[in-house]
Amino acid sequence: MSLNIKKIGVLTSGGDSPGMNAAIRSVVRTCAFHNIECIGIYRGYQGMIEGDFKEMGPRSVNNIVNKGGTILKSARSVEFRTAEGRKKAYEKLTQAGIDAFVVIGGDGSFTGAEIFNKEYKFPVMGIPGTIDNDIYGTTHTLGYDTALNTVVEVIDKIRDTASSHNRLFFVEVMGRDAGHIALNAGIGAGAEEILIPEEDLGLERLLESLRKSKASGKSSSIVVVSEGDKIGKSVFELKDYVEEHMPEYDVRVSVLGHMQRGGSPSCFDRVLASRLGVKAVESILEGKSNYMVGIINDKIALTPLEQAIKGETEIDLELLRVSDIMTT
Amino acid sequence: MSLNIKKIGVLTSGGDSPGMNAAIRSVVRTCAFHNIECIGIYRGYQGMIEGDFKEMGPRSVNNIVNKGGTILKSARSVEFRTAEGRKKAYEKLTQAGIDAFVVIGGDGSFTGAEIFNKEYKFPVMGIPGTIDNDIYGTTHTLGYDTALNTVVEVIDKIRDTASSHNRLFFVEVMGRDAGHIALNAGIGAGAEEILIPEEDLGLERLLESLRKSKASGKSSSIVVVSEGDKIGKSVFELKDYVEEHMPEYDVRVSVLGHMQRGGSPSCFDRVLASRLGVKAVESILEGKSNYMVGIINDKIALTPLEQAIKGETEIDLELLRVSDIMTT
Amino acid sequence: MSLNIKKIGVLTSGGDSPGMNAAIRSVVRTCAFHNIECIGIYRGYQGMIEGDFKEMGPRSVNNIVNKGGTILKSARSVEFRTAEGRKKAYEKLTQAGIDAFVVIGGDGSFTGAEIFNKEYKFPVMGIPGTIDNDIYGTTHTLGYDTALNTVVEVIDKIRDTASSHNRLFFVEVMGRDAGHIALNAGIGAGAEEILIPEEDLGLERLLESLRKSKASGKSSSIVVVSEGDKIGKSVFELKDYVEEHMPEYDVRVSVLGHMQRGGSPSCFDRVLASRLGVKAVESILEGKSNYMVGIINDKIALTPLEQAIKGETEIDLELLRVSDIMTT
Amino acid sequence: MSLNIKKIGVLTSGGDSPGMNAAIRSVVRTCAFHNIECIGIYRGYQGMIEGDFKEMGPRSVNNIVNKGGTILKSARSVEFRTAEGRKKAYEKLTQAGIDAFVVIGGDGSFTGAEIFNKEYKFPVMGIPGTIDNDIYGTTHTLGYDTALNTVVEVIDKIRDTASSHNRLFFVEVMGRDAGHIALNAGIGAGAEEILIPEEDLGLERLLESLRKSKASGKSSSIVVVSEGDKIGKSVFELKDYVEEHMPEYDVRVSVLGHMQRGGSPSCFDRVLASRLGVKAVESILEGKSNYMVGIINDKIALTPLEQAIKGETEIDLELLRVSDIMTT
């Protein structure tokens, strides 16, 4: 245990995701377990710059393990991208006696932490919190599993009405530049076609696939479209395109949007958050810094923040085959 | 009991809604209970015209009481709006020995039934199935209660992310020309403002209301917008308008769409469906025709189809006051 | 408006139910709307006796409309049943300047309020909060609709496994001496038999009914048993009894228990809570006292507490017929 | 591809679990994809012995990916444990021209398959379907993830009422001789103590832990108890024991029971089922036999059935520490 660490800060930054509260709770209680003070930093890096701090004890985080959102609020801070902003943040942290911080967020939040660490030799530790699962060094980001369940539950509802009317639905899901949500939720929801950024098969293949589905006797079709897909048409344009080329289809569009970021976290995300929080705090206490705590092969693992930021996640190609076979 | 009725048809027509399957099940089993044959008519009036019929016994409707959608499929039929279409339908019904039918659907479906009844003296009975709750002669249409729960659950998720970021969301919900869903789900979800067709207070009032909400210290705002509202701007235009006038707000839009029509029905809708189905069949057997079976003051009640079609539902004005007070 | 009322207390008492938080929120915000102070009384009458009070403003009740349980906590107080206990409570209330209170609870809580009102001429108003729906003067108690949805969702899951194994399940649900939950959730879940206190048809009828169900080709059976039923055997004894008389059945038991009291309230319960809270506060301000605010025929209505306590709710006999027909 | 395999059977056996239907769908569609006939075998090995077979095409498994239970039904067969029973089964399979089968089930089902394979050199492949996650050779069994979500959602509801009344609840969960469900759902639900078969710390430690929880200011306590725990007392006896030693506690018991086996599968279980089904069929076509298809380190992997049966799963000891820290 490092004797130098007496006070650890914790913040959530960037887009929120289910499980962030469970991770905050874990960081706070692990600090308490090791008799370390814990300071909640509100509104991400902006709150750090403004010194928006609050001491947190184990009872501050009662009854939040199952709550969506983040009690510390989140924000994107333009100021923290400037040297002056980071200087202010450093001053506020040192004034408050904070020796290290744990940031729960995504790529952008880690980049900020990494630069800050380089500039001030300030111990930082990252926990990957985003529904998009697009962070290198962890097979699962916090909130991803919950978002998948939210998406399949919604598509199940859409399927009810789609199959009652023999309709085709384009359903747009989140995921930024990665197709993880689309691919997994698409398979889970039994989608007839899945459009992801990692694989652009073009419009012709889409029509073909829909014709095949129609010919096979299916009563409805769901096409899951990742927001980052490369097909070059919005879901609304896709609707027009398909209606023009396949007038026999009654096409509808559903853009799922921000509901995907909310909701009570799944058991997986709650347990993952608990594990990551423990490891983040204990790694700091062991003198480690500038790592992201992730999960690889069901084991908690550290990855240097620099790698986590630069590395790219990959789509499991096996899943593309599985998806194809499932639409037989 | 009418000795003339030996075979009753049942169909779902128009937009589908949760509880339609529970109503089909009730019609089928009530027929079986009274030793009447029951014929499922597929794809609404179009299937009637095409003779798309199938005999249904009590075991045909096992395990559907909790399923969204409609196992009989639904459709809108242009042909049934023509005299020739209805003639074909009449021929198919009589060829199949069907003596009466129960149609589960909304305004448009009832209009078709009413005309058909007038033309052919054919016994018909309507069950109000739509999430919009816009049918006269019943305080609740089938699926309305379920849709309200779907909407509040989704807005609860949106609220998680809205309050993590101090954001304003415009959430568009269904309801056609009626604000029932928006008003009730808006109150249920704790919306800061609700825009419904029945009350157009204008854009200025909206800004005022948002300013009041901001001033009162609220960390996020949800505005529920009925698809039929009269404010003269789409939710996307509302976003632009508010961002222009209140640049301090980060505004997002969510159009809930067709997920509102699907999903497993609530207990209320399942029980209501069971009651309506019993009454529809038994009313036919008592020699009644051309009525809608609805619920008024917690009692099952018949309303002439003609009135059900022409009558207008009204918004409970008390709820507008409640909504105002809740946003204190 | 009564000029004498400047401060209103609010408490939850007895067993908790979903929607209590929404009702607290409504009371607090309606007070704020009318510029009346509102005091939260913690832990029911026991907290009243101990002066466990806290001032509540409109922001004290942010983000609780969708939360189960009660932020004011609840308890049963033996002391409040004594004259001395009530004297202490009166002193604490007057010391705190509280002019009236709203109690959210059931029969027992109302009885306490009624006696207190008689003894001290203290203005009181009741809001019916219990999942059991066993209170006279309201067709729906707060939490009842949510509990029905909880029960049917759980039985849907049990049905999955029951029908996979051709099993019979006895499912015990709450409801105290009333069969409302069992009867409605039983119909909603498609139960093959429903045992309620209001109708004891005996063990022989149960066997008959199960034999009929088996003969009709059903692959599984669910029997919903109200905790207050009069059949004279526990669900565990029923299991033994049926296994002895119908050895072809593999029988299981599930006692749903307290999960029925928790969970996020349904839209119906949230709206009802909002309406009842408004009416409770405004009735006090109009000089009324000693009433329960309920809903009858979809309209908010006042019933003297005395009647609410003594009156009995009745089972809708029509539902028994519907249930019979549904098991055809 | 093996030229000898033209027809593959599929069955579900033993206790059912969510995701079995998704696995059946995957087996059926993978067969269709490879132009292999697929035969559904009803009611597990008993149906195999009785020749209860039905041909299945890709449309036979429409709309089941999200359904709990198993459309093929399941059963435990005493007869299949006898040599005569297996002989009958072999005859029925060969009469129907079935060349191999995929069995979805647990330990017992795999033992049957393994013996059958040895006796008749009949190609078999296992897919682990059980909520208990107690099978060697896979980090996740089908249905386990869904059951975890079901359990935490129910405990969330119980927590609502527990914390409203400052109560202690003993919640018994499934898991047979393994504590996976209890440990993970316990952490996920924020349980104050978790009793699992793998770690018996005795009654004294339980009291200590509850005293610590009380002292730390927690308003309620949830103790999750695995059905296989070794503490030597039932949950009902635990209630009595604690009430005797800690009379300040109002203790309640909830036995979750069979609802844990039902419900719509999580996205994870649906995707896992799809992947396992593809691999099972394709492994048979590659000439492999007598394996279980599982997932290890996020990759699909084969384990000889013999090992899968004999091997033991282990509790992740790290999770015990995490659980301890979380109750700080």
UniProtKB/TrEMBL annotation, chains A, B, C, D:
Its EC number is 2.7.1.11. It catalyses: beta-D-fructose 6-phosphate + ATP = beta-D-fructose 1,6-bisphosphate + ADP + H(+). One of its GO terms (molecular function) is 6-phosphofructokinase activity. The keyword Magnesium applies. Substrate binds at residues 130-132, 167, 174-176, 227, 252, 258-261. It is found in: Cytoplasm. Residues 7-283 form the Phosphofructokinase domain. The keyword DNA-binding does not apply. Its cofactor is Mg(2+). SUPFAM superfamilies: Phosphofructokinase. Pathway: Carbohydrate degradation; glycolysis; D-glyceraldehyde 3-phosphate and glycerone phosphate from D-glucose: step 3/4. The active site is at 132 (proton acceptor). Keywords: Allosteric enzyme, ATP-binding, Cytoplasm, Glycolysis, Kinase, Magnesium, Metal-binding, Nucleotide-binding, Transferase. Allosterically activated by ADP and other diphosphonucleosides, and allosterically inhibited by phosphoenolpyruvate. ADP binds at residues 25-29, 159, 190-192, 218-220. Mg(2+) binds at residue 107. ATP binds at residues 15, 76-77, 106-109. Catalyzes the phosphorylation of D-fructose 6-phosphate to fructose 1,6-bisphosphate by ATP, the first committing step of glycolysis. Belongs to the phosphofructokinase type A (PFKA) family. ATP-dependent PFK group I subfamily. Prokaryotic clade 'B1' sub-subfamily. Homotetramer. This is ATP-dependent 6-phosphofructokinase. It comes from Flavobacterium ponti.
